[in-house]
Backbone:
């Protein structure tokens, strides 16, 4: 499948890697990540996944995120890799965690590298690689 609507929410199957510590989550298969165009980051993961991947053992940066309600929250993160197995592509980016995160969230910094078509009318979704990488 790779990408689909899960109870009305667009999701993408991915694999998360810490190439420095040679750790992968999940160890086998893929994990479902929510696509959130309101999140400007790359990838947000729950704290337990961040620690399973040993990202907490690397040099981490702190960021201040603003939530939809205007509240600020502190995140910690470092650089890692996201693999989209069904497309055969991978991206490097800032993978972060916040207190209380319960799901994996793909943000616009990752999505900008994909062609994403959402058709809510028929609950159909298309995801593909951009012809050329987006330059910021």
Residues:
């Amino acid at each position: 499948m790779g990408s689909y609507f899960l109870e009305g929410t667009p999701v993408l199957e991915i694999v998360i890697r810490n190439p420095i510590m040679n750790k992968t989550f999940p160890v086998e298969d893929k994990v479902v990540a929510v696509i959130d165009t309101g999140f400007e980051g790359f990838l947000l993961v729950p704290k337990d996944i961040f620690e399973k991947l040993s990202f907490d053992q690397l040099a981490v940066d702190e960021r201040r995120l603003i939530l939809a309600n205007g509240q600020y929250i502190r995140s910690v993160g470092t650089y890692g890799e996201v693999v989209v197995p069904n497309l055969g592509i991978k991206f490097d980016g800032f993978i972060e965690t916040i207190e209380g995160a319960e799901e994996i969230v793909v943000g616009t910094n990752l999505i900008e590298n994909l062609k994403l078509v959402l058709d809510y009318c028929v609950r159909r979704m298309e995801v593909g690689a951009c012809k050329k990488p987006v330059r910021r």
Observations:
- Residues 47-52 form the longest helix (6 residues).
- The chain has one domain: 3-129.
